[in-house]
Write a structure and sequence with these properties.
Blueprint lengths: L5 E5 L2 E8 L4 E5 L13 H4 L4 E5 L18 H14 L5 E6 L1 H12 L3 E7 L10 H7 L8 H15 L8 H8 L4 H14 L8 H4 L7 E6 L9 H8 L3 E6 L6 H4 L1 H15 L34 H5 L5
Parallel strand pairs: 3-4, 3-5, 5-6, 6-7, 7-8
Antiparallel strand pairs: 1-2, 2-4
Helix pairs in contact: 2-3, 4-7, 5-7
């Protein structure tokens, strides 16, 4: 096991969760077909300042894997996450969501007044869901499900979804594959795909404009799992949002650019969630460029972020 996890009972089943650190809570929600292992680079950096809560969503990782794909949709997952946070006595939190976890994060932000900051990365929104290829796989009869196919699809997903595939080593890939190995794991994998049917975010066109908490949207410029206009639509809908594009990154930005994302998200949460400034007395000497919302009159400019922009010298 890459990290110690506790198990918490919810109405949907037991959730395995990494719970470490002290301070205001930050909830990390992984994407599909991943697990809380997605946050292995984030947790050590966030834990000194925050209480980091990184669950395996139902059907993934070491959490229970319900037989009904409907229980893995956005709304049921959101309900289970709220129950988990109740059980952990969390009274306020920031939520960071990637992929499918970003859909759950949107649902939490709209439905749970405890959310005080939001970070979204390459996630579904509105009616923009997984590609037609994934939907065709979901439509296959259960008799065609197999462990060989699920493992092959999982491995290929990283080949397609990363632009720096060499950064995911064999041990890390094995940990991602582990929960979906064997007949039961393989069936759980296909149930996850089946659950990605667009249910759970239908009301977001009306709900997201009411979101007032600070929101950071980070998007891999070369991701092609979701429609290319999704980040702009999210940025337009959430008036408190900032949009950053990550050049040279695919769908799995946490694998492609962890070294860039970890300090960026840490600083954003420190400034916007904790309300703490980054002073010159900081021993690291780094001064990060703060992203701001793109003015309405700018039609073509985007915020392209790389390590020099994010971790360079002070900029006015």
């Amino acid at each position: 096991m890459w990290a110690e996890k506790r198990r918490v009972a919810t109405s949907g089943g037991e959730v395995a969760v990494v719970d470490i650190g002290q301070g205001p809570a930050v909830v990390l929600l992984h994407g599909f077909p991943l697990s809380s292992f997605q946050w292995r680079s984030f947790i050590p950096q966030l834990a000194p300042k925050f209480r980091v809560i990184a669950p395996d969503l139902l059907g993934a990782g070491d959490s229970d894997k319900p037989q009904d794909p409907a229980e893995l949709r956005i709304r049921p997952q959101s309900t289970v996450m709220r129950e988990l946070l109740d059980a952990l006595d969390i009274d306020r939190y920031a939520v960071v969501g990637a992929g499918a976890g970003g859909g759950v994060a949107q649902r939490l932000t709209v439905d749970d007044p405890r959310v005080e900051a939001l970070v979204l990365m390459n996630c579904p929104a509105f009616d923009g869901w997984l590609s037609g290829d994934a939907r065709r796989v979901a439509a296959r009869p259960r008799s065609l499900w197999s462990e060989t196919l699920s493992i092959a699809m999982l491995s290929t997903t990283f080949d397609i979804g990363m632009r720096h595939r060499e950064r995911l080593n064999a041990d890390a890939l094995a940990e991602y594959l582990r929960p979906y190995s064997g007949p039961e794991g393989s069936d759980a994998f296909f149930r996850w795909i089946t659950s990605n049917d667009g249910t759970g975010l239908e009301d977001m066109h009306q709900a997201l404009p009411a979101v007032e908490c600070p929101t950071l949207i980070l998007w891999g410029e070369e991701q092609d799992f979701y429609p290319s206009d999704t980040p702009d639509l999210l940025n337009e809908a959430i008036m408190s949002s900032t949009l950053g594009l990550l050049p040279g990154c695919g769908h799995f930005v946490t694998e492609d650019a962890a070294d860039t994302l970890v300090p960026m998200i840490f600083e954003y949460l420190r400034a916007k969630y904790l309300g703490q400034t980054h002073g010159h007395s900081d021993p690291s000497g780094a001064v990060l460029v703060q992203l701001e919302r793109r003015p309405e009159w700018v039609d073509t400019a985007e915020f392209d972020l790389d390590e020099e922009d994010t971790l360079g010298e002070e900029s006015e």
